[in-house]
UniProtKB/TrEMBL annotation:
Protein name: ATP-grasp domain-containing protein
Any one GO MF annotation of this record: ligase activity
Pfam families: ATP-grasp_4
Keywords: ATP-binding, Ligase, Nucleotide-binding
Residue ranges of domain ATP-grasp in the record: 113-316
Coiled-coil ranges from the UniProt annotation: none
Source superkingdom: Bacteria
Source organism: Vibrio lentus
Amino acid sequence: MSVVMFKWDKDYIHHLEKPNESYLVLDEYDIKTYNPSPEVISQFRKVYVISNNDSLEEIASIAVDIQCDDSSIDAVIPNGEFGVYGAGYLAQLLGFKGRLKQAQATRDKRLMKSQVKARGIATANYCSVPHSGECNPEQIERQLGYPVVVKPANGAGSRATFIARDRNELTRCIQLSRDSIRPPTHSKSLIIEQMIQGREYHVDALWHKGESLFFTISQYFDNRIEQVHDGFMDGAQMVHRSDAPSLYQQIEHLHHQVNDVFEIEDGFTHLEFFLTPQGDPVFSEIATRYGGGAIVPMLNEKFGVDVIEQAVNLAERREARSPDKLVEQAQYVAWMIVNVEQDGIVTSIPEQERLNEHKHIASYEMNVQVGDRVKKGCHPVFPLKIILTANSQSELNSAMAHCASTLKICTRAEL
């Protein structure tokens, strides 16, 4: 079986059974940011390096090259949201019908919301600010009121996202959002959304022929938009199915509706929604990729398997029968990111021995060292990822509060 991996993802690539039969497409951002191992990429049948993730001419040339090889491609896998457009275009050229439209609809939040709203799914009202255009404050105030959320239409996680509570803030936030857009995002188009009141959740699933191998709902500690405020806790706790069976039933129905809108049948999805004080779900957005932060290691802990390996197996083998659903292992789980509190040079990090001995820390990943130069909230590397487990909700709550108050990464300002 032959697949095309579009952009760098060491976890996906590590699990390929026969990379010598598959293709790898990287862009210059991948090379500069991740410095892929020559030993790893040399295992592929062919490796292509293009200038950026959505270079139409270069991607079209790759499609022809693969066809000249007489290769039968079983899947084109976009590694991360920034590979979705390019992978969709390449897949379409290789004969996968509908992939480019799906890529556009699951990346551009304006089209996404328009299509779900047309199917009667509750979502925020919005206004569009074109790539090079100016917004009409009167129209926004008339249609949306305040507060509103300003962010890139093509999304960058929660980056370049701001809240505006009046006209002056709206003008400032539009400029801030555009100024904050950096490669690999290129479009300067913005979406301005009605701000939904309620708690924010993320839903993570792996699909095979329209059925989920796993389906989890997690509640963010704090809504993502709140990360600009001091005291923001970065992470989420998984909602235990037995504690909220009606919520799971409600959101599984919602997700199948959304899948129908975007013709999603296979692979990972990461969906976000708000639950209003009245208990009504409001769709926020969906991505055809696995969730960021430390969501994957949380899923691994919950199910006792490597979920990325499961996804690669499905993509490579295309089994005729649907595989069994994954069985939950851990009871209560959460993921947490420990960020630096200010830009500068790292002066201290939590001791490894302390992390190893913490009875509720199932796993962690330390990505900074003393002496490193870091920026607050700067991706693609999170300073410290932590997975917490517990036997009860109250026990998990205590562990989360303890870690949030005691685990710190300290910095000093550069002179």
